[in-house]
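I am still getting used to backbone structure tokens and would like to learn alongside you. Would you supply a protein for us yourself, any chain you care to pick? Start from the sequence, derive the backbone structure tokens from it, and show both lines together. Go ahead whenever you are ready, and we will take it from there.
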Amino acid sequence: QAATLAQAFHGTSGPETPACTRARVCLASRGAEVAVGMGLSLGQSLFLYAAFMALAIFGIYYFVSTAPPLPLSHCADIVTPMDVVRGRLVREPQKSILNLWNCLREYKKDNWWHTTAGIWGIYVIFKIFGPFGAGTSMVLSVLIGALYDEWAEPNTRYSLLAHLMGVSGEVCGGAGGWIMSYFIGRQILLHYASEKMAKLKEEMDKFQGSLFRYMLFLRISPLFPNWFVNYSTALIGMPFSYFFLASTLAIQPAATMSIAMGGMLRDVGEEGLDLVKMGKRGGMMAVTMGLLSLPLIPADDWAKGIQRIKIRFGMSKEKTG
């Protein structure tokens, strides 16, 4: 099956082949451009992926080893990057976030730039190497919301700096994964995720009128893991500009929710539990999330929804029944 998929992805203009039809991964337009990477073998692709990961690990090690030391009294039981890879951050999110918050809150007072660069860099790296950092995005966004109160909106005390860090980390990390997959990921995905690639193309056939709408659908749909969307869309002819813009739009509601949650946890830790204040902030953030979600509704669905409302209230010229 992987060989059939690879033949289909190598296809260029010309008549559609039976192999391409069976695999369901040839593009609907045979003249469309398909990213074929650098013509690497599976072994070469895996070697480069491992080399890039090793380089990232070395970068993290060098950054941590040259940074000012952590306050041991507050940082004795924090999660490490390897704990994140092993899944501890996902298995114990509450304990992990509280321990990291207590540690980094003290560290940030005297080392703001190191703290900010370190958290943002870790976020981006785990997004680039998605399968090894799956499930960490929300936890890291909550942590960012708990740590940063700069550029706060007056009514909700929502930190615009935290929002910028979370959104930019998500988008830049995803873009890094897209670029890496474009050059070295084709053989890896065709070998290890051939069924998902076929399903991706099957869904793509339903959105032939707009690649951007399909990219937006992939970003808000739970159909595929986030890391797989980052990697696979580089191989099906999805323009990078569509990927980047759709990712930026689609992440807004989730980033708002998780960062606001972190801000509320910070307030509880510093000021105690105030249910009235928490309810007020929660309501305002829910309205904000709703407004941010409106642009994600496709234009066709908007038109159909408005038409249904008109028919329901007798405002449409169309006769029903």
Observations:
- The first helix runs from residue 2 to 9.
- The chain has a mean pLDDT of 79.
- The chain is about 70% helix and 0% strand.
